[in-house]
Specification:
This protein is an alpha+beta fold. The chain folds into 3 domains: 111 residues, Thrombin, subunit H; 97 residues, Pdz3 Domain, CATH 2.30.42.60; 158 residues, N-terminal domain of MutM-like DNA repair proteins (Alpha-Beta Barrel), CATH 3.20.190.20. Helices cover 21% and strands 28% of the residues. It has 9 helices and 21 strands. The strands form 5 sheets. The protein has a 6-stranded antiparallel beta barrel with strand order 1-2-3-6-5-4. Strands 7, 8, 9, 10, 13 and 14 form a 6-stranded antiparallel sheet that branches. Strands 19-18-20-21 form a 4-stranded antiparallel sheet. The relative contact order is 0.08.
């Protein structure tokens, strides 16, 4: 979600500025809206007008979900963070446009902004807790008949339990008919108002009481009411950088980086882009990763197997004669160095720093991967020249450089 809090060193210039007021609730479809900001094309304030076209509950960046308002008012680079106003109140904040279509831009609604502000009161952003299950729709008649469900009823079925709570109130195969008092259809969608329908996950926070969501389910042909706990989303193996710089470490010609959700998301985005050559390259890369059973694909949505686990991968190597005979190692995930399995970036740097072996052997976690072997003395002696020749001023990100330079 494209929201941040900024604290000014000197707030006095705003002493006489009247703050804007956020609207309560969601706007009506087709209601007029003005988007205000400083987009590309000029240096003075810009105001574009349009109407509210659509309101949906969708996925944002970094795995978050929330409401978004679609408008046909022009939103361009530079508009992000600017207010969208209706009837003198802010109904949302501009954050995105649809590049592949005309007159489609998106706002983060004031409702989501209020939830964000409430979340960070303690100084941390925790995100939205949710019910830790997956659902499957019941649109298929054969599936419904196999469960003995009435054709007139509307519901979804629990597909998998992700929670690790003991005595969890839901079971695989439970059929969910209501979230609170809201009726679900066979796609897991409920009517919020005369105009709006949202997915089940939106209603979880709306109907929750004391951290639990009341659901009505059918189990063993019996209607049961259960209270299901909301839980924080667990850590993911592929973390999102959220604007931070990735960890990296340069060792001779090898550039080690942390495998992040940003890398895989960028690859996926390129596959859907308008540049046909970029799309073809991205599709070919993904197919290669799948064929080689790379963890970049097979573990894309995993949780860490142990505390602190990271996947360490290689970026394009820096040119030098000691790499002669090796192919490009880019996207290879490091399995082991000198026979020791790699736990994370810090562990890798510590192993290389402390190694007294004559050779450095790198093995990779994918089928048909080359093994890379370098003389330890040669690769360390060549490192400074390689950095200088390629204009690299720092051989590592800040924390990893401290690890490398520690005794």
């Amino acid at each position: 979600m494209d929201l941040a809090i900024i604290e000014l060193d000197d707030p006095t210039p705003f002493d006489n500025v009247r703050p804007v007021e956020f609207a309560q609730g969601l706007p009506k479809l087709q209601s007029p809206v003005q988007v205000i900001g400083y987009p590309t094309g000029g240096s003075t304030i810009s105001v574009t007008e349009g109407v509210v076209s659509r309101i949906e509950h969708r996925s944002y960046s970094y795995g978050a979900e929330g409401l978004r308002i679609q408008v046909d008012a022009a939103i361009n680079p530079g508009n992000s963070g600017g207010p969208a106003v209706a009837d003198g109140k802010v109904i949302g904040i501009a954050f995105q446009k649809q590049n592949s279509a005309d007159n489609i831009g998106y706002l983060i609604p004031s409702e989501e902004v209020a939830a964000f502000l409430a979340d960070i009161k303690d100084g941390n952003y925790d995100g939205k807790p949710s019910i830790r299950v997956t659902y499957q729709n019941l649109l298929n008649r054969g599936f419904r008949d196999s469960l003995g469900l009435d054709a007139a009823m509307k519901e979804v079925v629990i597909q998998d339990i992700l929670s690790e709570e003991s005595e969890y109130p839901l079971q695989v195969g439970d059929v969910v008919t209501h979230v609170g008092t809201y009726d679900l259809d066979n796609s897991g969608i409920a009517r919020f108002s005369d105009e709006l329908r949202f997915e089940l996950s939106y209603f979880e926070s709306i109907v929750a009481k004391d951290g639990k969501v009341p659901l009505t389910i059918i189990r063993d042909d019996t209607e049961v009411k259960v209270d299901v706990p909301l839980e924080e989303k667990p850590l993911e193996l592929f973390r999102s950088l959220k604007g931070e710089s990735p960890e990296y470490f340069v060792y001779g010609p090898l550039v080690f980086v942390e495998a992040t959700a940003d890398f895989t998301a960028a690859l996926e985005a390129q596959m859907l882009g308008s540049d046909l050559s970029v799309r073809a390259h991205s599709v070919a890369m993904l197919r290669l990763l799948m064929w080689r059973d790379s963890p970049l694909v097979s573990r894309r949505y995993d949780e860490p197997a142990f505390e602190g686990e990271q996947l360490v991968m290689l970026s394009n190597s820096l040119p030098h004669k000691i790499s002669l005979g090796y192919g490009s190692p880019a996207t290879n995930v490091v399995k082991a160095v000198n026979g020791t399995d790699i736990r994370n970036m810090r562990h890798l740097v510590e192993l290389l720093r402390d190694s007294k072996d004559e050779f450095i052997h790198s093995d990779f976690d994918a089928k048909f991967s080359e093994k890379l072997v370098f003389s330890r003395e040669e690769i360390e002696a060549a490192s400074d020249d390689i950095l200088t020749a390629n204009g690299v001023s720092r051989r590592a990100s800040t924390e990893l450089l401290e690890v490398w330079e520690a005794e």
